[in-house]
Design goal:
This protein is α+β, with helices and mostly antiparallel strands. It is 34% helix and 27% strand. α2 crosses α3. The chain is globular and about 55 Å long.
């Protein structure tokens, strides 16, 4: 159910045509890449101030804000792609959560940028290792569309206090 709901949200976000309102142009499903970082993706929305050309990525999420910074890191990676592609500094973005119907502004601080670059490096290292990490079983697994492929319960609930 949750996966289907998330897919419906993405289809709604992705299907819209570009539009301009109150000095802001809204571009949807924007393909981006950062060759230097080796990442690419499709942004849900980029807001463009028509007077200044200033860009702001906006990421839509089905749920609510999470305790870990992964949503912020994903958004910052989008900002880094826009920076490499356009040459302009992208100081901030926004996360919009469907469950809470709340928009959260995110500043791309030096700390968030460092976390994002560390995450990109860790993923690159994981991909280069050709090793699949063991599943990290948790309650979020129930809402995952890949649970039947991953089968995290086969390894049982792991003790999270062990590093």
């Amino acid at each position: 159910y949750l996966t289907a709901q998330g897919k419906a949200l993405q289809e709604r976000v992705d299907s819209g045509e570009p539009e301009t309102r109150k000095g802001m142009r809204f571009e949807r499903s924007v393909h981006v890449s950062a060759e230097k970082l080796g990442i690419s993706g499709v942004l849900d929305l980029v807001e463009v101030e028509t007077k200044t050309g200033r860009l702001k990525p906006v990421e839509y999420k089905r749920g609510k804000p999470k305790p870990d910074p992964m949503d912020e890191i994903q958004l910052c990676a989008q900002g880094l792609c826009l920076e490499e592609m356009t040459g302009q500094t992208i100081p901030e973005g926004a996360l919009w959560y469907m469950q809470t119907r709340h928009r959260v502004p995110i500043t791309f601080s030096d700390d968030l940028r460092a976390q994002t670059l560390a995450t990109i490096a860790a993923v690159r290292e994981l991909l280069n290792s050709s090793q699949t990490p063991p599943p990290d079983y948790g309650k979020r697994c129930k809402a995952c569309s890949l649970v039947e492929i991953c089968q995290p319960e086969l390894l049982g609930k792991r003790d999270r206090s062990v590093g």
